[in-house]
């Protein structure tokens, strides 16, 4: 079912190496650490869905491609592509941390961070 596995995230590895080499009081150390956290959240999301596709079998024929780079009027990347003879689904994962709950009354998305902070996005 999985036709292409995910490649290593060299951007994250580079940020880690840079962060280790910078002195603690360097002016961009906090920026680099923030970018590392963001990249790590994205990796966690992509790895989670990869494990789902490795664990579960679908009742229809399909193929899964992870980490696809394409070129059309410029380069772009797809996190995961699932395709079958009848449809295709593109999965994109954003580097957003926390636990998410969709609520219906009133319609909103609630995010809870590990420190207990909550963010609520309401329907406009």
Write the layout of secondary structure elements.
Blueprint: E1 2-4, H1 10-21, H2 29-55, E2 63-71, E3 75-83, E4 88-91, E5 99-104, E6 107-112, E7 118-122
Parallel strand pairs: 1-2
Antiparallel strand pairs: 2-3, 3-4, 5-6, 6-7
Question: Can you walk me through this structure?
Answer:
The chain is an alpha+beta fold. The chain has two helices and seven strands. It has helices at residues 10-21, 29-55, and strands at residues 2-4, 63-71, 75-83, 88-91, 99-104, 107-112, 118-122. A four-stranded mixed β-sheet has the order 1-2-3-4. A hairpin with a 4-residue loop joins strand 3 (75-83) and strand 4 (88-91). Helix 1 packs antiparallel against helix 2. The protein is globular and about 55 Å long. The model has no long low-confidence stretch (mean pLDDT 86).
Low-confidence stretches: none
Number of helices: 2
What fraction of residues sit in β-strands?
25-35%
How is the biggest beta sheet arranged? 4 strands, mixed
**Proportion of residues in helical segments:** 25-40%
Summarize the structure.
By secondary structure, this protein is α+β, with helices and mostly antiparallel strands. It has two helices and seven strands, in the order βααββββββ.
Quick tags:
2 helices; 124 residues; 31% helix; three-stranded antiparallel beta sheet; four-stranded mixed beta sheet; alpha+beta; globular; single chain
């Amino acid at each position: 079912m999985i036709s292409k596995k995910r490649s290593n995230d060299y951007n994250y590895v580079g940020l880690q190496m840079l962060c280790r080499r910078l002195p603690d009081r360097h002016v961009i150390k906090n920026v680099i650490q923030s970018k590392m956290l963001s990249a790590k959240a994205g990796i966690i999301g992509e790895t989670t869905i990869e494990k789902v596709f490795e664990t579960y079998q679908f009742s229809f024929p399909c193929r899964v491609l992870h980490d696809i780079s394409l070129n059309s009027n410029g380069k772009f990347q797809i996190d995961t592509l699932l395709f079958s003879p009848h449809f295709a689904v593109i999965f994109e994962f954003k580097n957003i941390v926390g636990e998410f709950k969709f609520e219906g009354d009133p319609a909103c998305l609630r995010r809870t961070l590990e420190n207990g902070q909550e963010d609520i996005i309401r329907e406009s």
